[in-house]
Amino acid sequence: MAMINCRHFSGYKPCPKNSECDSSCAQKDVPACSVLIVHLGALGAVVRSTSLLKAIKRKYPGSMITWVTDAPAHHLLKNHPALDRVLTTSEADLLQLSALEFEVGFVIDKSLKACGVVKRTQVDQIYGFTVQGSNGAIMPATDAAQELWELGLDNHKKFFVNQKPETQLMIEALELGEYQRDDYWLPLTESEDREARRRKDMWLAENNKSLVIGLNTGCSPVIPYKKLTVDYHRLLIERIQAKFPYAEIVLLGGPEDTIRNGLIQEGYSVISSETESGLRDGLISVAACDVVVTGDSLGMHMAISQKKQVVAWFGPTCAHEIDIYDRGFKLMTKSPCSPCWKRTCEKAIMCYDQVSLEEVIDALESCCANRLSGRSTALNPAP
Predict the structure, then answer these.
(1) In whole angstroms, what is the distance from residue 292 CA to residue 217 CA?
(2) Beta strands in 192-339, from DSSP E residues, in sequence order
(3) Are 21 and 2 in contact (CB under 8 A)?
(4) Contact call for residues 107 and 115 (beta carbons, < 8 A)
(5) Comparing 48-52, 96-100, 181-185, 347-351, which segment has the lowest mean pLDDT?
(6) How far apart are the C-alpha atoms of 68 and 77, rounded to whole Å?
(7) Cα(30)–Cα(89) distance, rounded to whole angstroms?
(8) How far lies 218's CA from each of 11, 144, 228, 298, 306, in Å?
(9) On the CB side of 42, how many CA atoms lie within 13 Å of its CA?
(10) Are strands 137-140 and 122-132 parallel, antiparallel or unpaired?
(11) Which of 120, 119, 126 lies closest to 144 in space, CA to CA?
(12) Is the pTM of this model over 0.85?
């Protein structure tokens, strides 16, 4: 009899693992439980939440995991070895979700939309966040999520009292056991890994260099002040080329950065990576770098996920919420009003104008030395 409860059984086409579907199949894999993850949020936050997957697998071994996210984040999660199904919030995908049942659900976003996604299916136990149906207020699903929930309501606590990274706060809020500082888990496929190696070799060969420094130049339009100016990037290029003649500089970014990267690159011998080929291609370019200089953005989270040496600067957002796993440095703006999380600002001197170029160069010097010597941890790692 067909193994209808096997992870690989679809019921409408032959099994890709074995032509004979019965109890004798060596590839048989019956899930111990079904888990739903709902994280729709910002692209970088979705990348960061891959750090949860190993903890989920520890607490729920043999689980079958479905992750629901907003497009285009699903491209980042496709082919992930820990995920059995990745769905978006399109109506077609939500129809699929409505046919499924889950024993455990993790709602990571504090949003009505995420809670609404859960309403489209059946979940026995929800962790993270839920909604007060009468007025639409977001509430902790269990007492464990109280701390993370309160940080969203109190700027003083969020900015100055809390010292836990978001990765730890999520583990605790979702009741996933003792925090073990699991790294991001966003592997390349074999073909992507080959392309990253080919791309790096090509970049290094172009000017006979020995190391690649990636400058991630952009950020989400939600908080546009998380990126340095064109002029700052051009000055940074001059300093890098003078200080690190053995390094090739590659500009990183997405479609919104294409024109801007052209302005940054003009007149300099630097490489501008492809910006129009999608999120996975951007991840490949990040993986081809040795060190990445970036603001608090998707590019930063990609660099962390690929275990790069990272020089990350922070202005509007909270540096203590980010764990770079001792692979680089977190640099703070000198702006006295940082962090603020404001989406608009009218100040004459912006926080990105108050990032020390000397601190960036000093951090780069340590990170480059680490890569050239084969060390993975910074000489003076960020807290």
Answers:
(1) 10
(2) 211-216, 247-252, 271-272, 291-295, 309-314, 328-332
(3) yes
(4) yes
(5) 347-351
(6) 10
(7) 27
(8) 45, 35, 8, 9, 18
(9) 15
(10) antiparallel
(11) 126
(12) yes
Backbone angles phi, psi at 272, to 5 degrees: -105, 115
d(CA 54, CA 63): 11
What are 223's two structure tokens? 């908080």
For 329, other C-beta atoms within 10 Å of its C-beta total 24
Round to whole Å and give the CA distance between 213 and 288. 9
CB contact set of 312 (below 8 Å; sequence gap of 6+): 293, 294, 295, 296, 300, 319, 322, 324, 328, 329, 330, 331
Please give the Cα distance from 215 to 341 (Å, whole number): 23
Start-to-end C-alpha separation, the chain: 56
Q: Is residue 39 within 8 Å of 113, Cβ to Cβ? A: no
Instruction: Give 151-196 as a DSSP string.
Output: HTT-HHIIIII--S-HHHHHHHHTT-SS---PPP--PPPHHHHHHH
User: From CA 6, how far away is CA 84, in angstroms rounded?
Assistant: 12
Q: How far apart are CA 142 and CA 154, in angstroms?
A: 19
**Tokens matching residue 371:** 């890569």
- By CB atoms closer than 10 A (0-12, 13-18, 19+), residue 285 is buried
- Rounded CA-CA distance 168/180 in Å is 8
Rounding to the nearest 10 degrees, give the CA dihedral for residues 192, 197, 200, 206.
Answer: -120
Q: What are phi and psi of 176, to 5 degrees?
A: -100, 25
Q: At what angle do helices 279-287 and 298-305 cross, to 10 degrees?
A: 60
> For 137-182, how does the pLDDT look when each residue is reduced to its tens digit (9 = 90+)?
999 999 999 999 999 999 999 999 999 999 999 999 999 999 999 9
363-382 pLDDT per residue, tens: 999 999 988 877 655 544 44
CA distances from 163 to 121, 146, 159 (A): 36, 16, 9
Read off the tokens for 316. Answer: 């509007």
Cβ atoms of 285 and 273 within 8 Å: the answer is yes
